């Protein structure tokens, strides 16, 4: 709908581009979400958040081997370490269990790797396909595959009134805009420069939980996590003089 409102060429794509968008949808949306939610079912939310943050490392490392102008550097390595430390801090609790479950933690890490690889593939596609159009096709195709798979394995979809429809519409719009903006950023920037911004997600989640859910964030770990994440982003984007 956003692409149509902007009069983007949503139907003027080649068979090769349709194939690329289908593959992107099946990996970045379908396969990634399958592994992610299977993993969350067998691990804790805290550990899932930490394991999912490994996606930033995968993005930076894969970009190092794929793009000649996006090599791993001291600044990027230090920035990623600081950012990951921030994620660890914001999820820190005295009773944390650091054991590793292959089905739980392993699935979340696999989801992070698939998302990172698909992100680089999406960057390649965005050079010939408008990012908004690309986002619409990959979310639509990948989402349809998930719905079909869900019903095939006995899943059901129950709508409880207008509020449920409104929330579903809100989440759909939120995902579409977020993915479209991310695709635009990927098209015009190096992966290694923008991937570390993903470390802000768990920190932002903690702040938004305090605002909308009334959770307490007046703890030292949140301030320290924000400092670490912001420092990591600054180091990654620091220009050598």
From TrEMBL:
It is found in: Cell membrane. One of its GO terms (cellular component) is plasma membrane. The keyword Transmembrane applies. Pfam families: EamA. The keyword Zinc-finger does not apply. Residues 3-91, 104-237 form the EamA domain. The chain crosses the membrane at residues 21-43, 49-67, 74-92, 98-121, 133-153, 165-185, 197-214, 220-237. It is a multi-pass membrane protein. Keywords: Cell membrane, Membrane, Transmembrane, Transmembrane helix. This is EamA domain-containing protein. It comes from bioreactor metagenome. The lineage of its organism: unclassified sequences, metagenomes, ecological metagenomes.
